[in-house]
Amino acid sequence: MKYSVLGVLGLVLTCHLTAPAQTVKTSKPTSQKAAAHKKNTPVAEAAPAQSSAATIIVPSWLPPTNPVQPTATIVTDVLDTKLDVKFDWAKQWLLGNALLTLRPHFYPQNQVVLDAKGFDVKSVRAVIGGKEKNLNYTYDKRKLTISLDRMYARNEQYQVRISYVAKPNELEAGGSAAITSSKGLYFINPLGTDKNKPRQIWTQGETEANSCWFPTIDKPNQRMTQEITMTVDGRYKTLSNGLLISSKKNADGTRTDIWKQTLPAAPYLTMMTVGEFAVINDTWRGKAVDYYVEPGFQGTAKAVFGNTPEMLDFFSRKLGVDFPWEKYAQVAVRDFVSGAMENTTATTIRQEWVQLTKRELPDQSYQAEGTIAHEVFHQWFGDYVTSESWSNLPLNESFADYSELLWAEHKYGADAAALVQQQKLTNYLTEAESKREPLIRYHYATREDMFDRHSYDKGGRVLHMLRKYVGDEAFFASLNRYLTQNKFSSSEIAKLRLAFEETTGEDLMWFFDQWFMQRGHPELYISHTYTNGQVNLRVEQRQDSTFTPIYRLPVTVSVWTGNQSQPTDYKIVVTKANQMFTLPASQRPNLVKFDAEGQLLAKVQEQRTQDELLFQYYHARNYLQKYEAIDQLRGKLGDLAVSGMLRNAMNDPFWAVRLAAVEGFRRYKGPEGNAVRKELRRAATTDKKSQVRAMAVTTLGAFLNEDFSDVYATALNDSSYLVVGAAINALARNPSIGTRDALNALQDTHSPVLLNALSNYYSLNGTADQYQWFLRRMNDVSEDELYTYLQNFGLLMQRMPPVERDKGIQRLEAYARTHPNITVKLGAYRGLSSLVPSTATMKATLQDIRAKEKNDQLKAAYSLIQ
């Protein structure tokens, strides 16, 4: 799965969670690591003993103690599921008939307990020799407990048929920041009353929501084959797992499709989709590769999804395991509750990410491509081999996350891969400001807690370090061993470690223990001196070793001396909290660069002079080294050498270097002012990358009391929505009468980027006319953008007479109380909170919203908003 909304809410919590550290008195400091333990045993964390002898400061990022969450005990195996379903659109019900083939896992059984949430159960029968007999059962709206006709041994299969009605909208609301709802089955625009939205049905099973629409044992350590029969109106297309083995038109205008998957997968990976889709056909080695989009986007679907066959080929070759499933399809759906979901053979993706117009493609195809690669890789890691428990979720998500780097490296080169590495590391370190958990978490409050920047971004960076340590050949050979040994089964972290140990011959417990089983990351301070023909390199680990280990860090140090075009590389292994390394050097080095490959998952502070950083930029061997020099020196732009470096970087072949340079000139006051502004004007209008043009417009907009209206006017006609949006945001701070008509002409845009930019402009410069515009366009704004849009609406209403605000306040309040997306709720709440000083009853309204909110993450966010 690739989540989407987690970032916004997570960022809000990270930015505001500044609670002071707690002080705990103990008799002696807690050890860095738990005592030696057997392999396969999770690290046990002991609570500090209470005493007045010493004091330990408990950091604010240390999460509360949560219960142990063991892997589900397997009493019964679900071997096969056959479903026959119809839909009542008006009531949003599924009318279902399920035939389950089951078997006791080991011990004899005379009953079976199934997950079945919110059903009306009509009948339960045993199917014996082609005949059926009623079975006794009890049902509490969550669990269906069936008494079998006799005791069955572990080698005996039996079948149970269940007739039921699934009513997902009658379930208690659930969900999290990553997966915003947990009702499993979703009817979109079921009555067709919204003329701007198609009618669709789709499902979302992760984590354990598929039992909201069919009875099963809804745990990731189950595996089953399946067959799903769907009867729908003849105008709709259907999609499910496996192959379409039958499609029959019925006399009443309906059609019955049968989808069959012959290879076993976990129940949460089962899916259905119904809607009016255009299907674009592709192939890979004779297997169908299909793209389902709304008809209006069929012209760009191949441009968005067209690299899928190459991804299947690349990953098959790298892993030495061919894509194993019958086919691969991807479907874009409306109002999806996550970013994307790797259902076996049929990935679901939120339509905002992949249904792109020709004009949107240059700006957004890179995000779509990363998502597509992520979900393709899940077909091996997550589907072919599945985490046995949600505690082991990184075995699915870390690999899918890392695939984004692997694909960028393969398709676009080392710099593109380094950019992915940088972005992902930043994501994790941002989250780590407010919480730090082990990657493999046997303690958590809810399953959805696992879907965070740890399981994704941190896990991907850990895999990158593992790859760098063992080498490419051993890394992919180990992955081949892991996949081959555990195919079509569930797995845990020990199996991955053993696959690497069996391949390399090395005991890697130290690596897996410190990176997978313990929380935190290294916080390094690096310094060096030169004396008597040698470099003395000091590495200090400054992280809190009470709650975080002292790490063993294999790393490369590069030393440039004299006129060397290439440095001398030294491999060192850091093992202590404070450690000195001596490296030979015939003369004082021009540069000593720690972690020259940029592989470490760490927060690094490295002591270097301005001259060393300038040398680093001009002799950099990769994007990360160039970016680091730009980032470290942007505060010294008054120096001609530094501003010259940034001007040089504005012409770099790699667009992200140019982007960093352009951003570095924001509010520049140095001696090359005119030349810099000229370069920024050029970048804003002619750079071939839209992201760089947009950043140049934004940078010019940050020069206070300066007129760049001609640049903004040109940018308003740019082919890129990102650039147009940047111009609108720049004009929001520096409004120009000459561009007002051009802005108003954009009011009916369908671009999410422009809608948000216009909402920002009107929040600062709007009038009563724009009040009506906010209300009119609100339903057109995607859930991803509503968070900001609603806050901007609140800012506009501050300037409206109180008697004219009622409709807007009612709309915000409705979103804050009832919207299914918790990020939208938060945006509406923040929009209302901006009206507190000027609306007498608003404090009471906000207090009531807080009191009635059931989502703990939202309640935490609300408590931080003044």
Automatic annotation (TrEMBL):
- Species of origin reads Hymenobacter daecheongensis DSM 21074
Entries under PANTHER family matching the protein: PROTEASE M1 ZINC METALLOPROTEASE, PUROMYCIN-SENSITIVE AMINOPEPTIDASE-RELATED
**Necessary cofactors:** Zn(2+)
- Any one GO molecular function term: zinc ion binding
**Boundaries of every Aminopeptidase N-like N-terminal domain copy:** 82-269
Q: Which Gene3D superfamilies match?
A: Leucine-rich Repeat Variant, Neutral Protease Domain 2, tricorn interacting facor f3 domain
Q: Which Pfam families match?
A: HEAT_2, Peptidase_M1, Peptidase_M1_N
Q: Which reaction does it catalyse?
A: Release of an N-terminal amino acid, Xaa-|-Yaa- from a peptide, amide or arylamide. Xaa is preferably Ala, but may be most amino acids including Pro (slow action). When a terminal hydrophobic residue is followed by a prolyl residue, the two may be released as an intact Xaa-Pro dipeptide
Name the InterPro entries for this protein.
Answer: Aminopeptidase_N-like_N, Aminopeptidase_N-like_N_sf, ARM-like, ARM-type_fold, Peptidase_M1, Peptidase_M1_aminopeptidases, Peptidase_M1_dom, Peptidase_M4/M1_CTD_sf
Q: What is its EC number?
A: 3.4.11.2
Q: What is this protein called in UniProt?
A: Aminopeptidase N
The record's similarity note reads: Belongs to the peptidase M1 family.
